[in-house]
Neuropathy target esterase
Amino acid sequence: MDDTSSKISSNLSSYWPFDALPEAAGKLLSESALELELEHDMWLFHQDDPADALFVLVSGQLDVYQGEPPIWRKRLEAGACVGELPLVVGGERVRSGSIRAVGSCRLIGLGYSDVRRLLTRRVFDGLLTPVTERHLARLELGLSTLFGKLPLSMLVEIDGEMIQRHLAAGEVLFHANDTLRHVWLVDEGRLEVLVERDGQQQRVAEVGPGQPVGELAVLIGGERSATVRALRDTWLRGLTAPTFEALLMRHPGAALGLARTLARRLVQASQQPVIVSQPRTLALVPAQPDVDLRGFADALIEQLSSSVTALGVESFAADAPLAVRLDDDPANRRFGEWLSAAEAEHDAVLLLVSDKLNAWTRACVSAADEVVLIADSGNASALTEVERAMQGGDTPGGVSQLVLCHPPGTPTPGDESVLMPWLEARSQLVFLHEVAKGDRRDFSRLGRGLFRG
């Protein structure tokens, strides 16, 4: 065995699934594996290309895209296995996504026929669990809310037929009275369902990660009775109406599961009033450069009985160090995933925002349920750069609440001469709060006001 073959064998056997191979398989591994190098922005393969090999990423990073036009899905780090899904699940072997290099990358590839020769049946069967977990967990969650539990082969079949869509904050998925042609599942982000009452659009529900939207209208062939709009940057996967109907025809068990789900929803709807969700994610924006936003957030959290976390750009940088710039699709998608994880772990999230308009600020005010301006009382400040961008429509969102912080030990005055200069420049404000710094009662009351209860 020459040095190059030995090096390839050693590298490949360090990674899943080849770490389960006996040492004696090293020679066969070295004879079969090939080393591949990609420069920045080069494609490893494209969606729907024939699939005949899997790869291990030895160094560098790869971005995964799906859909047409391609939408970024995730970033792979060194050690990741790429392209194993068609091998494991069988059926027509085509790529389910496109892979592009981020910087220079080095990979080791192995043909599917060689993989089957190398791996024992027990090891090969063991690939099913990690594949399901890594590739299909969110899809399984969304589809199970419609159909109940589905076999892996059916999940993969559906995944291969789904299209991708991205909505910016404020963008409409469909309007009331539209004829719906897709069933959608939310991957990341959040949608709001709006109905018109007394000439006003009112939010009656929200749709979050793993939840479907549009299935009933597709089934009955009718028009939508509500408008659905993105509350923040949202990524969806969808099935066209013909594909959805064909799926039900091919799989009677799925159709029965769907019938049970819809019947259960009708019973629940008849028994429960519509509950409009309260704000859970607030973006805190300082009105002046010297506002102690972290100290304010800590004082507020101390008085709240529920689980609340305050997150700044440094938190995102620690959890997603490769996406701090937030200036491209992968970074924005990673921000959405990061925020969804924080919301799943806590009852509420406070996003700490700079008074400067940058990528972090734009991402936060766009994703937040509401934007709250934090100011030290005294002379009213002019509109910040962030406020001007929101008022001008350059950035989604808008300040809806203002908190004026008075010096410690002073009563909250409610003096119109203090309040009016702030309000005159900010006619869009819905709520105004006043607190004395260090006053626990004030901050307890503030928490109830900010989160409506």
